[in-house]
Amino acid sequence: MDLELKGKAAIVGGGSSGIGYAIAHRLVQEGARVLVWARGKDALETAAKRIREETGGEVVVIEADIHRPADILRVVETAVAAFGRLDILINNDGAPPLGALLEFDDAAWQKAIQQNLMSVIRACGAAIPHMRKTGGGRIINITAISARQPAAGFGLSVATWAGLIGYAKTLSLEVGPDNITVNTICPGRIDTPLSQRGFERAAKGDAARAKEMLDTLVRNTPVRRIGVPEDIAGVVAFLASAQASFITGVTLPVDGGRAAALL
Questions:
Q1: In the prediction, which pLDDT does 115 show?
Q2: Pair (221, 160) in one structural domain
Q3: Which CATH number is 132's domain given?
Q4: pLDDT digits over 103-151, tens only?
Q5: Assuming Cys at both sites, which of 74, 96, 118, 190 could form a disulfide with 156, CB separation 3.0 to 4.6 Å?
Q6: Which domain holds residue 208?
Q7: Mean pLDDT for the chain?
Q8: Is the separation of the CB atoms in 139 and 127 below 8 Å?
């Protein structure tokens, strides 16, 4: 299927590894021109070099910190300067620390809000005027299944991503007339370096315990496996395409069927 992404200009956050890297790779593979950004420049350069070698496509790199408003504006401005337009915005980053809600002070909450909610608000505010100039666009937010099915210990993410889901739904109503869609993906357990470290922390360095936890997760997932970053990248590519022009305001679990909810 031709997703009609050739020549489109995209921004992908967290593009140096994991889900962000897979999304950037897939979009470039489909013909889009992509700016990837994250905090580590060396890792970004390595990722971009690999994408270019494997796809022959165009990738621009910029080091930036999601917690800094000026950095987010600079990311958008750099993409527009490089590509002359902006069609696709992928809001993707890691997650705040795990822990019991009552353990976190105001500083931890403020940091989580900046990372998971305010960064998206700022990126959308900077990107939408450029999308309007090109006649439309796609905004896709990456959260986690815990935003739909809360779990103990994930409170910082759950609370802030719940706010993001509300923001995204409302934004979809307001920018729909501009041919801009806004959707949110909630990945289940995906095999990334970040999730691997999470298993190790939860198992407290016990390899046998970590394997037991993983086996239990697989048994509790209807498709009997955990996801890979490419599972998310494929959905993102579709939502970024012309074929998804009638899909907006959606919060979509991509979790192998693990979420126990009808809606």
A1: 96
A2: no
A3: 3.40.50.720
A4: 999 999 999 999 999 999 999 999 999 999 999 999 999 999 999 989 8
A5: 96
A6: 191-226
A7: 93
A8: yes
Q: pLDDT at residue 75 above 90?
A: yes
Q: Residue 159: left if φ>0, alpha if ψ -120 to 50, beta else—which one? A: alpha
Residue 260 placed within a domain: no
Structure tokens at 257: 């069927």
Are 116 and 235 part of one and the same domain?
A: yes
d(CA 98, CA 229): 21
Question: Residue 168: how many CA atoms within 13 Å on its side-chain side?
Answer: 32
Together in a domain, 211 and 235? no
Tell me, yes or no, whether 195 and 174 share the same domain.
no
Q: Which of 66, 2, 77 is nearest to 35 (CA)?
A: 77
* 139, burial (CB in 10 Å: exposed 0-12, middle 13-18, buried 19+): buried
H helix intervals, the chain: 18-29, 41-55, 69-83, 106-113, 119-134, 155-175, 193-202, 207-219, 229-239
**Same domain flag for 109 and 208:** no
197, 229, 255: which is closest to 18 by C-alpha?
229
The conformation of residue 84, written as its DSSP 8-state character, comes to S
Give the C-alpha separation, 50 to 237, whole Å.
19
Closest CA to 239 of 113, 92, 141: 141
Residue 174 shares a structural domain with residue 52:
yes
User: pLDDT (tens digit, 9 = 90+) per residue, 93-103?
Assistant: 988 988 999 99
171-227: per-residue pLDDT in tens?
999 999 999 999 999 999 998 776 776 666 666 777 777 778 788 888 988 999 999
Q: Are residues 49 and 137 in the same domain?
A: yes
